[in-house]
Specification:
By secondary structure, this protein is of the alpha+beta class. Helices cover 66% and strands 12% of the residues. The protein has 1 helix and 4 strands; from the N terminus they run H-E-E-E-E. The strands form 2 sheets. The protein has a two-stranded antiparallel sheet with strand order 1-4. Strands 2-3 form a two-stranded antiparallel ribbon. A hairpin with a 2-residue loop joins strand 2 and strand 3. It starts with a helix and ends in a 20-residue tail after the last strand.
Length: 140
Protein backbone atom coordinates (compact mmCIF):
# COMPACT_ATOMS: atom_id res chain seq x y z
CA UNK A 1 0.00 0.00 0.00
CA UNK A 2 2.90 2.32 0.69
CA UNK A 3 4.21 1.74 -2.78
CA UNK A 4 0.85 2.54 -4.30
CA UNK A 5 0.51 5.70 -2.27
CA UNK A 6 4.06 6.73 -3.24
CA UNK A 7 3.26 6.09 -6.93
CA UNK A 8 0.08 8.20 -6.69
CA UNK A 9 2.05 10.98 -5.03
CA UNK A 10 4.68 10.79 -7.79
CA UNK A 11 2.02 10.94 -10.53
CA UNK A 12 0.37 13.87 -8.75
CA UNK A 13 3.70 15.69 -8.51
CA UNK A 14 4.35 15.02 -12.21
CA UNK A 15 0.90 16.39 -13.06
CA UNK A 16 1.63 19.56 -11.08
CA UNK A 17 4.99 19.94 -12.88
CA UNK A 18 3.31 19.40 -16.28
CA UNK A 19 0.61 21.96 -15.40
CA UNK A 20 3.30 24.49 -14.38
CA UNK A 21 5.21 23.98 -17.65
CA UNK A 22 2.00 24.25 -19.68
CA UNK A 23 1.07 27.46 -17.85
CA UNK A 24 4.56 28.87 -18.60
CA UNK A 25 4.22 28.14 -22.32
CA UNK A 26 0.70 29.57 -22.48
CA UNK A 27 1.82 32.70 -20.66
CA UNK A 28 4.51 33.23 -23.32
CA UNK A 29 1.92 32.71 -26.07
CA UNK A 30 -0.38 35.27 -24.44
CA UNK A 31 2.44 37.83 -24.32
CA UNK A 32 3.22 37.14 -28.00
CA UNK A 33 -0.44 37.57 -28.95
CA UNK A 34 -0.59 40.91 -27.10
CA UNK A 35 2.58 42.21 -28.77
CA UNK A 36 1.36 40.89 -32.14
CA UNK A 37 -1.84 42.86 -31.70
CA UNK A 38 0.18 46.03 -31.12
CA UNK A 39 2.33 45.28 -34.18
CA UNK A 40 -0.79 44.75 -36.28
CA UNK A 41 -2.21 48.04 -35.04
CA UNK A 42 1.07 49.82 -35.91
CA UNK A 43 1.07 48.24 -39.37
CA UNK A 44 -2.54 49.35 -39.93
CA UNK A 45 -1.65 52.93 -38.95
CA UNK A 46 1.38 52.84 -41.26
CA UNK A 47 -0.83 51.58 -44.10
CA UNK A 48 -3.30 54.42 -43.51
CA UNK A 49 -0.46 56.96 -43.54
CA UNK A 50 0.90 55.44 -46.73
CA UNK A 51 -2.53 55.54 -48.37
CA UNK A 52 -2.90 59.22 -47.43
CA UNK A 53 0.54 59.98 -48.87
CA UNK A 54 -0.38 58.15 -52.09
CA UNK A 55 -3.61 60.15 -52.30
CA UNK A 56 -1.68 63.41 -51.92
CA UNK A 57 0.80 62.33 -54.60
CA UNK A 58 -2.07 61.36 -56.88
CA UNK A 59 -3.72 64.76 -56.41
CA UNK A 60 -0.38 66.48 -57.11
CA UNK A 61 0.07 64.39 -60.26
CA UNK A 62 -3.42 65.36 -61.48
CA UNK A 63 -2.66 69.01 -60.73
CA UNK A 64 0.65 68.80 -62.60
CA UNK A 65 -1.03 67.06 -65.54
CA UNK A 66 -3.63 69.84 -65.74
CA UNK A 67 -0.88 72.44 -65.53
CA UNK A 68 1.05 70.67 -68.28
CA UNK A 69 -2.07 70.51 -70.45
CA UNK A 70 -2.55 74.25 -69.99
CA UNK A 71 1.12 74.81 -70.86
CA UNK A 72 0.77 72.69 -73.99
CA UNK A 73 -2.30 74.67 -75.06
CA UNK A 74 -0.42 77.93 -74.46
CA UNK A 75 2.58 76.62 -76.42
CA UNK A 76 0.29 75.68 -79.30
CA UNK A 77 -1.13 79.20 -79.34
CA UNK A 78 2.39 80.63 -79.29
CA UNK A 79 3.42 78.23 -82.06
CA UNK A 80 0.51 79.36 -84.23
CA UNK A 81 1.36 83.01 -83.52
CA UNK A 82 5.03 82.39 -84.35
CA UNK A 83 4.06 80.61 -87.56
CA UNK A 84 1.82 83.50 -88.57
CA UNK A 85 4.61 85.97 -87.77
CA UNK A 86 7.08 83.90 -89.80
CA UNK A 87 4.65 83.73 -92.72
CA UNK A 88 4.11 87.50 -92.51
CA UNK A 89 7.86 88.04 -92.38
CA UNK A 90 8.38 85.84 -95.42
CA UNK A 91 5.59 87.63 -97.25
CA UNK A 92 7.05 91.03 -96.34
CA UNK A 93 10.57 90.07 -97.43
CA UNK A 94 9.81 88.02 -100.50
CA UNK A 95 10.26 89.06 -104.08
CA UNK A 96 7.19 90.73 -105.59
CA UNK A 97 7.25 90.85 -109.36
CA UNK A 98 4.96 93.59 -110.61
CA UNK A 99 4.43 95.07 -114.08
CA UNK A 100 5.50 98.63 -114.76
CA UNK A 101 3.36 100.90 -116.95
CA UNK A 102 2.74 99.53 -120.40
CA UNK A 103 4.30 101.14 -123.44
CA UNK A 104 2.50 100.81 -126.74
CA UNK A 105 4.12 101.30 -130.11
CA UNK A 106 2.66 101.00 -133.58
CA UNK A 107 5.11 99.51 -136.06
CA UNK A 108 2.69 98.70 -138.87
CA UNK A 109 -0.64 100.24 -139.77
CA UNK A 110 -2.78 97.43 -138.37
CA UNK A 111 -0.35 96.18 -135.76
CA UNK A 112 0.51 97.53 -132.33
CA UNK A 113 3.27 96.16 -130.16
CA UNK A 114 2.76 96.28 -126.45
CA UNK A 115 5.90 95.95 -124.40
CA UNK A 116 5.57 94.81 -120.78
CA UNK A 117 8.36 95.42 -118.31
CA UNK A 118 8.47 93.74 -114.92
CA UNK A 119 10.04 95.03 -111.77
CA UNK A 120 10.94 93.40 -108.45
CA UNK A 121 9.11 95.43 -105.80
CA UNK A 122 10.02 93.07 -102.95
CA UNK A 123 12.99 93.04 -100.60
CA UNK A 124 14.49 89.72 -101.75
CA UNK A 125 15.97 89.03 -105.15
CA UNK A 126 13.73 87.29 -107.64
CA UNK A 127 15.41 84.11 -108.81
CA UNK A 128 14.20 81.51 -111.27
CA UNK A 129 11.61 83.82 -112.82
CA UNK A 130 10.27 82.57 -116.11
CA UNK A 131 7.35 83.72 -118.12
CA UNK A 132 5.96 84.13 -121.57
CA UNK A 133 2.88 85.86 -122.79
CA UNK A 134 1.36 86.22 -126.22
CA UNK A 135 -1.57 88.41 -127.02
CA UNK A 136 -3.14 88.66 -130.43
CA UNK A 137 -5.27 91.65 -131.15
CA UNK A 138 -7.09 92.17 -134.36
CA UNK A 139 -8.55 95.47 -135.11
CA UNK A 140 -11.15 95.91 -137.74
Amino acid sequence: MIWLTGALALFGLCSVLAAFLQWNVMSGQLDEMKSGSKDTHDLAEAAIAQANAAKIQSEQAVSEARSMAASVAEMRKESVAMREAADASVAANRAWIVPVPISKTQTQPNRSDIVLHWQNAGKSPAVYVYGTAEYMFQSS
